[in-house]
Write a structure and sequence with these properties.
25% strand; 43% helix; 5 strands; globular; Nucleotidyltransferase, domain 5; 4 helices; 138 residues; alpha/beta
Length: 138
């Protein structure tokens, strides 16, 4: 049975989400959540609604591969989500995904593919890049 994976670009203010399947090997942006006290409940609802079987979370490292404060926050978030969802978590190095998301978002705007001209959507595009990177390795 194909796995349905949720890609997550964690941030202290916003969390970008993308969804993909191992059968099609494709990821697509899903949505962006505001990171607040209701976020975990929203995520658990999305996991149930989409029948997610795997969580793929971008791990923010500095360019030297060293961990930083946001890396610790991301790991804490992942541990909490894994505990509450009972799903496996895989981390993907997300260095350069923000740059790639910006590049893709600008291309989408230029070709009128971006319905929402909202830069918040870049977080979902970043989650898509994280998830696609994992799918490509499967």
């Amino acid at each position: 049975m194909p796995e349905v994976a949720l890609g997550i670009d964690y941030g202290s203010k916003r969390i970008g989400l993308a969804m993909g399947q191992t059968m099609t090997q494709t990821a697509r942006p899903l949505q962006v959540l505001t990171n607040n006290k209701g976020t975990m409940e929203q995520l658990l609802s999305i996991i149930k609604e989409w029948r997610i079987t795997q969580l793929i979370i971008g791990l923010p490292l500095d360019m030297d591969g060293e961990e930083q404060e946001i890396t610790r926050q991301t790991r804490n978030f992942a541990n909490k989500l894994q505990h509450q969802s009972q799903l496996p978590v895989t981390f993907v190095d997300e260095r350069l995904t923000s740059y790639e998301a910006e590049r893709q978002f600008q291309h989408m705007r230029a070709t009128q593919q971006a319905k929402a001209k909202d830069k918040r959507q870049m977080d979902a595009v970043a989650a898509q890049i994280i998830l696609q990177s994992w799918l490509d390795q499967q």
